[in-house]
Amino acid sequence: MEPELTGQVEDDDSAGLTSGRRAVSGGDSVCEGKEMELLHLGEGRVLEFTVRGPENGPVVLFHHGMPGSAVPMDSVLDSVTGQGYRVVTYSRPGYGASTASPGRTVADTAKTCRLLMDHLGVHEYWVTGWSAGGPYALASAVADSARVSGVLLIASFAPYDGEGLDFVDGMGVQNHVLFGSAARAEQDQRAIVSQMAAIVRDSDPAELAAQMASLLPKVDAAELTGAYGVDNARHMDHGLAAGADGWLDDLRALTAPWGFDPADITVPVELWHGALDQMVPVAHGQWLTRTLPTVHAHVEGGHGHISLGVGRLGHKLDRLRSRAS
User: 127 has which bridge partners?
Assistant: First the structure.
């Protein structure tokens, strides 16, 4: 029997949970001033990251969207640290100060994240992926199966070649154009990504909301013009400060074979999708629900791509941990 997508929401208070408590290094300055730290990977490559939250809290590795960066967004992550979690954020290769890795697969990035968790001395952790971060979160559960305890997916993409999935059906105009470029030459892809990056970079949130109107139901537009919009602008500006290589490499990684089979996931997965999502339509969540063997899936009828996660991730992580315990 296929697991069902449900519309029911229960915000559990699971403060008593203890599974997964492993401290990681990282000073208070990371939390307060959001300074970046660098992990040296060899051959001149670095990975940018931050650590924030209670010293002894359960560790969560957060995989950002596209474009994005290690810059923590308070409007998103305060709900996580407020529930007692210790959150590790990072910039995928090509974003921020992280060295680009042309041709990287989703699985390749997950293996790099495994090195980050080694560096931090983490013995057990949870992974969260929002939007384009979802596939990377699933990849972490395969690449580091001995340590990843569970996966939280927020509005995640499904594979580009997923059987029975029309990848772009229901997306707004910009995403039709972006993912429609996947079959074109790299030069054409780069031109489209660069044009979109120029629109996003240094944009006022209200102006960006107007530019992205085809992707935003009213509930998402309201979030983008509020506190989340300010956080998101800093988050994306940092990611794109050195150019759009990360965005291009993300596009190519998401639309190529991921390097692992989602059906191989063995840890608990909590999947959440907004019924109004016009960036990653709910059909992606339905495909993942049919495919992931350990998934509990939920659709929230009044939410889109952004409103689904703002200020709401902490309790969703608690639900995941309660299943695992």
Answer: 61, 151
